[in-house]
């Protein structure tokens, strides 16, 4: 049994996917699968069951994971203890769009700080086109951004799909009723101007349908858009995550959009010019954990990890 086999096994167990684990461990999926297979052969037990939703631990795998998690943790602690001797920078720079909402950004920051207590955390908020430029220049180590997979000098680590909702003022009486895309021209919309990813996706879907959306105001601030929507000045098109807190306070409610359902792809990217080297893949884990918790718990409606 080798340490790398334990590392690969723990990655699959935590990420519940051979594909995501291979990306996380920076190996090809066949290579990772071979090592897991060799481990199962040595232990003479089946560790995972695969289905259409990913990889799941068997009872034997769950017991093995319980014991291996401690080993993996000790190895990581030993590696972290060498940080003062490496002479590298002690800073993690992570970027995220404001549409993820303050609640998620706070929980992600807390998770990153708890996961790696050594480096100083710098959280940068910006629109996706800004985050992409900062990743390419090495100014950011990691970033969550929309449609980031096509950007050079950045490596895709994971992806999430989010549905967009019509955000309306005030609390909802009962479950918010869906609204058809063709009905959206009846609402005055407050939106960022292009190259906003949300604005671009809505206009892309509207063109072939012959739908002319009513963009009443253009404001390049998600916080201002949410505040104006809550005040009844207009409506907004945003993912559920952006207004999770406001919905909880009864300031707005989110109506699902149908026929078609507008969606955005949110990518977790790592800069290939980061000075963190291999550590960047370890640091992506708490971000993935936060995303998984939000999607699997149903807190972020209309969102799922790919």
Overall mean confidence score, pLDDT: 85
Report on the biggest sheet: 9 strands, mixed
Overall geometry comes to: elongated
Global Rg: 21 Å
CA distance, first residue to last residue: 31 Å
Named CATH topology of the largest domain: D-Maltodextrin-Binding Protein, domain 2
Summed up, the helix count is 11
List the helices and strands and how they pair.
Elements: H1 3-15, H2 18-25, H3 29-43, E1 48-51, E2 54-57, H4 59-80, H5 83-86, E3 91-96, H6 102-115, E4 120-125, H7 128-137, E5 142-146, E6 154-169, E7 179-180, E8 189-191, H8 197-209, E9 215-218, H9 222-230, E10 236-239, H10 244-248, E11 252-258, E12 263-271, H11 279-296, E13 303-305
Helix pairs in contact: 1-2, 1-3, 1-4, 2-3, 6-11
Features:
single chain, 306 residues, Arc Repressor Mutant, subunit A, D-Maltodextrin-Binding Protein, domain 2, two-stranded antiparallel sheet, 24% strand
């Amino acid at each position: 049994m080798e340490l790398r086999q334990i590392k690969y096994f723990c990655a699959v167990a935590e990420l519940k996917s051979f594909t995501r684990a291979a990306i996380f461990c920076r190996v090809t999926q066949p290579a990772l699968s071979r090592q897991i297979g060799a481990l199962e052969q040595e232990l003479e037990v089946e560790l995972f069951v695969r289905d259409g939703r990913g990889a799941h631990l068997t009872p034997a795998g769950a017991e093995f994971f319980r014991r291996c998690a401690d080993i993996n943790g000790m190895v990581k602690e030993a590696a972290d203890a060498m940080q003062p001797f490496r002479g590298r920078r002690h800073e993690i720079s992570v970027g995220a769009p404001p549409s993820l909402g303050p609640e998620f950004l706070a929980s992600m920051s807390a998770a990153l700080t708890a996961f790696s207590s050594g480096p100083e955390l710098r959280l940068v908020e910006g629109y996706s086109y800004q985050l992409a430029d900062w990743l390419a220049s090495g100014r950011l180590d990691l970033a969550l951004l929309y449609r980031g997979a096509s950007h050079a000098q950045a490596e895709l680590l994971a992806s999430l799909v989010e549905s967009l909702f019509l955000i309306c003022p005030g609390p909802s009486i009962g479950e918010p009723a869906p609204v058809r895309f063709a009905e959206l021209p009846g609402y005055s919309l407050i939106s960022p101007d292009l190259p906003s990813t949300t604005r671009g996706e809505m206009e892309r879907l509207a063109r072939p349908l012959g739908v002319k959306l009513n963009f009443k105001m253009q404001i390049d601030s998600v916080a201002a858009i949410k505040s104006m929507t809550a005040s009844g000045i207009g409506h907004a098109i945003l993912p559920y995550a952006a207004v999770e807190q406001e919905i909880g306070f009864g300031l707005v409610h989110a109506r699902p959009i149908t026929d078609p359902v507008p969606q955005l792809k949110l990518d977790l990217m790592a800069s290939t010019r980061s000075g963190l080297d291999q550590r960047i893949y370890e640091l992506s884990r708490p971000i993935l954990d936060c995303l998984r918790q939000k999607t699997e718990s149903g807190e972020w409606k209309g969102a799922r990890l790919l």
